[in-house]
Amino acid sequence: MVTKKKIKQIAIYGKGGIGKSTTTSNISAALAKAGYKVMQFGCDPKSDSTNTLRDGNYIPTVLDTLREKNTVQKEEVIFQGFQGVYCVEAGGPAPGVGCAGRGIITAVQIMKQLKVFEELDLDIVLYDVLGDVVCGGFAMPIRDGIAEHVFTVSSADFMSIYASNNLFKGIQKFSNSGGALLGGVIANSINDDYSRAIIDDFANRTGTQVVGYVPRSVTVTTSELQGKTTIEAAPDSEQAKIYLNLANTIAEHTVSKVPDPMEIKELREWAATWADQLLTREKGL
Amino acid sequence: MLKTDKVESTRQALHIDPLRMCQPIGAIYAALGVQACMPHSHGSSGCCRYHKILISKHFQKTIRVTSSMLKENAAIFGGEENLKVAVKNIFDIYKPQIIAVQSTCLSETIGDHVAAILGEIELPEGKYLVSAQTPSYIGSHLTGYSSMVEALLGQLAVRSVLKKKKCFIIPGLVNPGDIREIKEIAASFNGDFTVCPDISDVFDAATPEKQDEYSPGGTPLSEIISAGSCELILALGPAAAGAPAAALSEKCGMPFVTLDLPIGIEATDRYIRQLQLFYGSAPLGELKRQRAQLVETVMNCHPLFYKKKAAVFCDPDLAVPLCEFLAGLGMVPAFVFTGPASSEIDERLQEIFARYETEGVVQSNTDLFELEQYLKNEPVDVLIGEVHGKHLARRLDIPLVRMGFPITDRFIHPYFPIVGYRGALRILEMLLNAILDRADRDRAAEELSFML
């Protein structure tokens, strides 16, 4: 008897605009380049998660297809991009109407019913999920045993850390009913030592780890303006190496944990201690 | 039998046989009291079906309610398209003069802005659209009734500088027989008045044969639009009619008075007195005759009611004047249980209890399970309330007098009033029959008497 290959399903969350899609797409591209069969599943009504894997082009979304045809066929919503990465966009309602959360639930369920992961013989599925966990719908990839590991993309900004802490609360909630566990923090836009220290301290306080530090880089911007990932547009750059290393860490990651999020008061006090430290540093004391 | 026999635990997350129903039920009820109006449920079809069946069964008549038929797509993308297509189809197929849209839990949760969507629709000449927000996770069917009446008046009535000696009567959620009685009493003053919503000649009229025909009853739209020319608004029932009266008053600038539903002698007296204050005195021969007959009957049967205990479970608007009447008969309204109600109900009932030197347990936003627990500790002689008390009555072996909404297991009852002096006489008869039937049942055969 052949044992069924275990597909590694990973969800990536973080505050809006923090660089989730950029990071996820570069990880997907790097993993594909390393020979893995990868799918990137964009769970955001904006449906632009996989753009840079497909030369800046949008693809038809699962929900738009469902709306128009009432059924969804695999070939209508799965498209291949850079190095054969399979790209899927959940899609969702226009801004200000309907319920995007319900949309994510429906889109993920449709993909489950279509059994595409098994059929495509995938190694890794990456869910790129909008914002922090604002409602039950956005928690879909981390509950019901869909994704196994969660990573959060965060900068050293307080609001970004706040969003990550909220995500940890969500993970903790679902952890005893078969939900996903936390793999760690992907520290983004880390260009100086104090940002690194802040994010390290946050990971330490919440019982998790930082799996990679990604500096802010103009290479990323120029690549994106060409509609490409850094891995594709600047394969030999320093930044590409950072993404390759990060992808490698994630591919080899096996054990995730239940995080220990801070209570809101605790989080504020923690942030205040950092404010004091930074002030002291600025005064050159 | 239930095992629990004492009130021990307070429940916050569980109601067993709640004394409340969905908001849209009340909204549909109100909308059907407008002439040539189609109630439209902006939600999934199952929602609408439940509301429709409950109302149909109360009147044992078919009613029409349309639905946006929201399915999964609409839950994700919003129900705008469904609503727009539905409105067009309804005007094409059923040709109503007005469509009254009530929202549902689903459309409220996904955040459909029904009023804005309706605002984008180009209406055919002389047609109207109104909408009310009626999510069932707050309030009760009375809230829905109140919201829809408020929507009808707030969105259609036009402010008028010229006022006429006319009274705009907003009744609470009652039966067509009650509406007829309310109208007949008002008509005694030979003055001008409008009742809105008016379900007489709707729920008690022959069902129209063609799909684009409507019952002869219902408040004419022209009366609602010209509501602003009335000099006084009279709300009968604070929970159901108070808010719409206040809203109309604010919009059109005339005073409003909120009274109880005219149930029992005193509440009917207050209604008549208010009309008298407005219209001036009139020869009220027939009303005087009815009152005299009622008062004499009450005095004559007083010994049969004296110290008899009752448990009342119904809407707050019915509970207050009914308990006032019961207390006046010498009965003890030992338990008064209602659905969601304002804190005023407790004060009102305590005042009534004090006036008649009696007492009772008052609970709002509660359920029949809790009532049953109380009744096991302290039995009563008669239960007065809606149909869901049926099981309770069987288990505790206490006669049930059906009153309020819904009564889905009986026929014809909506044609007769419980309001006014004649309605009070009917309540007396119903109560007395229940008490005496029970007494006869408990008597040995040789003790049965043909005489009272």
UniProtKB/TrEMBL annotation, chain A:
Source organism, top-level taxon: Bacteria
Changes after translation: The reversible ADP-ribosylation of Arg-102 inactivates the nitrogenase reductase and regulates nitrogenase activity.
EC numbers, comma separated: 1.18.6.1
Top-tier EC class: oxidoreductase
Keywords linked to the UniProt accession: 4Fe-4S, ADP-ribosylation, ATP-binding, Iron, Iron-sulfur, Metal-binding, Nitrogen fixation, Nucleotide-binding, Oxidoreductase
Keyword Iron-sulfur: yes
Name this protein carries in UniProt: Nitrogenase iron protein
Provenance organism: Candidatus Desulfosporosinus infrequens
Organism lineage string: Bacteria, Bacillati, Bacillota, Clostridia, Eubacteriales
TrEMBL record, chain B:
Keywords in alphabetical order: Oxidoreductase
UniProt superkingdom: Bacteria
Pfam entry (one): Oxidored_nitro
EC numbers, comma separated: 1.18.6.1
Annotated coiled-coil segments of the chain: none
GO molecular function per UniProt: nitrogenase activity
Domain Nitrogenase/oxidoreductase component intervals: 22-435
The name this protein goes by in its record: (FeMo) nitrogenase, dinitrogenase (Component 1), beta subunit
Species the sequence originates in: Candidatus Desulfosporosinus infrequens
Protein's gene: nifK2
